[in-house]
Amino acid sequence: MLLARLLRRPGGRAVAAGAAVCLCAAAVVLAGCASGPAGKQASAGPSTPVTGSSQAGAGTWRAENSGTSQRLYGVACLSALRCEAVGAAGTIVATADGGRTWRAQANPLRGSSTPLYAIACVAPGSCYVIARPDTILVTHDGGASWSQHVLPVGVSGADLTDQACLSAYAIAGRPALCRLGLLDIACVSARVCYAVATAPPAYDNGTPIPKTPHPAASSIWLTHDGGASWTQQSIPPGVACNGDCQSGLYGYPLEWVSCLSNGLCRAGGGDLVDCGHCGFAYAVLVTRGPDQPWICAQSTVMCADVAPDAADCPASTGCYGVQSTNPFGGPNGGVNVYQSSDGGAGWDQIGPQLGWSSSVLNAITCPAALTCYLAGSRGSIARITNGTTLTAQPTPTHSDLYGIGCASPGPDSTCYAVGDDGTILTLG
């Protein structure tokens, strides 16, 4: 199979090579990749999580006793003291004392095989939890009671990874690859939230989508009434490939969504277009408010030069993201940190980069316009300061981390990172 290699200018935006570079996908060698089932982080022995200075950011990351051994995927807070973490087997654990103690919380999926994958909370008592592949749990009383809502996202069963999609990648152990079902949620207010989902046709990128009216494979869902009902939103059905692909539009996954309280929201994602020749189908979509249309951040059919696998937009023009699924490697083993100063239309690499070839970044949160925290494998955590400086932070664990969140706005907010074996780290 011919693959068009994507080139990246150091510190600059991604561009497609002028001529295709012939590569066999199975022969792509990436530093730091290990064998293992797709969608599950490859295990690693003890090692320094990342390199670089350890003097960034106030406070020290410390380990807390979560009271569970289940993998935790996400964490969000209702106040400086009250936070919720969610994970495998329908697990929810909560703290009411700023992270010092955590207790299991009853919910309709507790003890099931359903992974609780992401969470968004809005004070004083509202939280929304993604239960893959198709369910959203909602509480408006701080977790004392939960309701359960199933959405028709086109995915069912326990297989949450698109196996056909994986054949285009020569990467193992990267959880962001080829994910299916509901993947992320963000709120404008306690009653207005958006969720994003990806169905298998989003990865069916061998040929362009039909020119006849065609529903988008990815979907965005909106609730106006605190989660009691959800309405599917209209989004672009496809985007142009940014490389050596056939002309036309291709399906794309939606992997993340981020919202401000003024109603401005961004959502995005991308996938390798496996069509003999090759490129990426990237999308970053924007809406100005509930029931306003979702449109491409770029006014071109390509929709975005690049789209992160996970992102947060703490300001009207400022967004930050991480990408760890580019099989063409690059100076950081295919793991890059991005910043957008135009609301998600264009993305620039920021640094200095920290030797991520031995780690995978899974999550990002930005408690302030110019401050973000990133979490990933082997206990890796880094901090972005001044919007451009990326610095590794020491942590007390080598467990893989999958989620990170902060208790309140501000660069010195108390923050939490969660991951394997019930790991919860607190900064503050």
Keywords:
single chain, 4-stranded antiparallel sheet, mainly beta, globular, disordered N terminus
SSE map:
Blueprint: E1 6-8, E2 14-16, E3 61-64, E4 72-77, E5 83-87, E6 91-95, E7 103-104, E8 116-122, E9 126-131, E10 135-139, E11 147-150, H1 163-166, E12 181-187, E13 193-198, E14 218-223, E15 231-232, E16 239-240, E17 249-250, E18 256-259, E19 265-275, E20 277-287, E21 295-296, E22 310-312, E23 319-323, E24 336-340, E25 348-349, E26 361-368, E27 371-376, E28 381-385, E29 389-393, E30 401-406, E31 415-419, E32 424-427
Antiparallel strand pairs: 1-2, 3-32, 4-5, 5-6, 6-7, 8-9, 9-10, 10-11, 12-13, 13-14, 14-15, 16-17, 18-19, 19-20, 20-21, 22-23, 23-24, 24-25, 26-27, 27-28, 28-29, 30-31, 31-32
